[in-house]
Design goal:
The chain has a single domain, classed as Luciferase-like domain (TIM Barrel). The chain is about 40% helix and about 15% strand. The chain has helices at about 45-55, 75-80, 100-115, 135-155, 190-200, 210-225, 245-255, 260-270, 280-290, 320-330, 345-355; strands spanning about 20, 60-65, 90-95, 120-125, 160, 165-170, 185, 205, 235-240, 295, 300, 315, 335-340. Helix 1 runs parallel beside helix 11 (about 345-355), helix 3 (about 100-115) packs across helix 4 and helix 5 (about 190-200) packs across helix 6 (about 210-225).
Length: about 375
């Protein structure tokens, strides 16, 4: 493996890709899954250090996840981090319905100004705390929120009379640096979620799945977007465990779940508001269909999902194996990877040392300009 050229100039299948890391705002960082380590609990200090490590290591972007009763708030955290980051984007997760859309638009525009145009937005369609809204209705609310946010962040006055949002409002004076809405990242496996993404997302995010299924989802989403006269980029959210050799990577994976109590794993999986979603069910299916060692296909290990709701599989292997897997996904049409690993600071350093030198990065703002 060559290591003497920079990520900015190397070709990764001839085209640039977006490589993002993950800040564990939702109290999801461990040395061993299910074993609480106070130094890894969600806090301003710890999550700040993850983000600063990601920027120093050369990642393009960092996802700030959002949960109601888990960890710390994504928007408040982003405001604190913005002055500390010099080049990296932030992918800020916001939960539809938890904030009135015009006020959220003003907050996001302000964040984009603080980041000098480096904001990206992860839209989460989730029940609000204390409610249980039927899935189809929840996605209708999400679509309305995305439509209003995009218009306001494009600087447009809005007259909108929908099922969930009813307003007439001028665009806030605070506007994104580019003068238009930052890219909206959105994921969901159900039919309703896919249709929302086809209409309003800029980047459709997927959780780990078998290669044929990933290809099928991308094909379906391209057709759906085409019916609305749109096109999509595709992103892939996965964990990663990379070491100098395959055996070392597999040993690290085994160690990660070695002390996990099954009851504690179940409790962790079910604490999220979206633990019963179709996407989460699909992650469970993958885990249940895996081999005895947790691998469901080459280099894709489902053991991490034993103690995590949501994204439940990791790319595991040597640098060559991890790069090969990423190239395989890219060949299907994926150009944005949102990765994470345990503990997040240490695994970011492993990935940055062993894999990033082989991957061409896009210029930091090129994706925001698409």
């Amino acid at each position: 493996m060559t290591t003497n050229s920079t990520p900015q100039t190397q070709a990764f299948l001839g085209t640039p890709v977006e490589i993002s890391w993950f800040a564990a705002l939702c109290d999801d960082d461990y040395a061993q899954l299910g074993v609480t380590d106070q130094s890894l609990r969600s806090s301003w200090e710890h999550c700040r250090d993850i983000a600063l490590t990601a920027e120093k290591s050369g990642f393009n972007n960092i996802l700030l996840p959002s949960g109601y009763d888990l960890g710390i708030d994504s928007v408040a955290f982003a405001g604190g981090m913005a002055p500390l980051l010099k080049r990296m984007q932030m992918l800020v997760a916001v939960r539809c319905g938890e904030m009135w859309a015009p006020q959220l638009a003003r907050q996001l525009a302000t964040l984009d100004q603080m980041l000098e145009g480096r904001l990206t937005i992860n839209i989460i369609s989730s029940d609000m705390p204390g409610e249980r809204l039927e899935s189809a209705a929840r996605y209708r609310r999400t679509l309305e929120t995305m439509q209003v946010l995009r218009a306001l962040l494009n600087g447009e006055d809005v007259v909108f009379h929908g099922e969930f949002i009813n307003l007439e409002v001028t665009a806030p004076s605070a506007q994104p640096v580019s003068g238009s809405c930052p890219p909206l990242y959105f994921g969901g496996l159900s039919n309703d979620a896919r249709d929302v993404a086809a209409q309003e997302a800029d980047v459709y995010l997927m959780w780990p799945d078998l290669m044929p299924e990933v290809a099928s989802i991308i094909g379906d989403m391209r057709k759906r977007a085409d019916t609305y006269g749109r096109s999509l980029r595709f992103g892939y959210r996965a964990h990663v465990i990379v070491r100098e050799t395959e055996s070392e990577a597999r040993a690290a994976a085994a160690y990660l779940v070695e002390a996990l109590d099954p009851a504690e794993g179940k409790r962790i999986r079910e604490r999220s508001l979206d633990h019963s979603s179709e996407g989460v069910r699909r992650q469970a299916e993958l885990r249940e269909s895996s081999s005895d060692d947790g691998f469901v296909e080459d280099a894709l290990w489902t053991g991490v999902g034993r103690a995590r709701s949501g994204c439940g599989a990791a790319i595991v292997g040597s640098p060559e194996q991890v790069i090969s897997k990423l190239r395989a996904y890219q060949s299907l049409g994926i150009d944005a990877f949102i990765l994470s690993g345990y503990p997040h600071i240490e695994e970011a350093k492993h990935f940055a040392r062993l894999v990033l030198p082989e991957i061409a990065h896009a210029p930091l703002r090129s994706f925001a300009d698409l």
